[in-house]
Amino acid sequence: MAHTKPPILSPFSTPLTSIDWLLVSNRLQTVTQPPTRPQTSIMPFPFHDLPGEIRNQILRELLTHTTAIITRSANQLAPPKPTPLNLTPNILITSWRNYYEGLSILYGENTFQAHPSYLTSVLFAMDPHRLVVAHHAHLIRRFHIRVRLDCDPFFGNERVKEVFSGAEQLEVEVFRASWGIGGYEALDGFTSVRAVKRARVHGSVGAKFATWLKEVMETQEGAEIRVLESDEGFVDRYWDR
């Protein structure tokens, strides 16, 4: 009797159930597809859990600038070039708490330029295109203003005293078309300013007068004012007008 070889059965020679097909397809996917990494949830940084001192330091890094005010030569009439402001004010729109905590830093710890004619009625951040919203102007405590000596000022003396007295910082940059043209009359209002924490006067002005005016503006209200001495004829002409 001849012996015949048993037939070689293929694993697919018998009908597969739906469960078998599912197991086979899963094995094929395991072989052909790379393994996937487990999904991890990203938790937000607990910014408000930080101590207040650290939060304020972070806000100052984002909302204040230390770039020096770029001014031109004293006998040039063009306004200063815009100061680059490397700020990130978007932090203010992340939450109401960041908004209220950062607002006083943004407006209170940056220097803003007062308008040479309208003072704080028109404030801008070193560039006329960066106007300040009116209802935030009361937060500003640091000012820079350019005063031209050879033109009559548009502001009154009382207005200057009202606006700048008690400021944290006031920088008065004096200029004129040519040295010797115009007296110090445009600075009359600044001689009534008091209680400025840090004042600076520079530009087309005598050194002794600039030092004296700085001391006057930093003097507390009601305190005695030092008598001004002659400064190479400029102060004599100023007081004898």
Characterise the protein shown here:
The protein is elongated and about 85 Å long. A five-stranded mixed β-sheet has the order 2-1-3-4-5. Helix 2 packs across helix 3. It contains six helices and five strands; from the N terminus they run αααβββαββαα. With 241 residues, the protein is an alpha/beta fold. Helix content is 27%, strand content 12%. Strand 3, helix 4 and strand 4 form a beta-alpha-beta unit.
Spans of at least 5 consecutive residues with low confidence: 8-14, 69-77, 232-241
Name the quaternary structure: single chain
* Total E-strand runs: 5
Sheet with the most strands, sense and barrel status = 5 strands, mixed
What class would the helix/strand composition place it in?
Answer: alpha/beta
The coarse overall form would be elongated
* Share of helical residues: 25-40%
Radius of gyration: 36 Å
Termini separation: 145 Å
Overall pLDDT metric: 76
Order of strands across the main sheet: 2-1-3-4-5
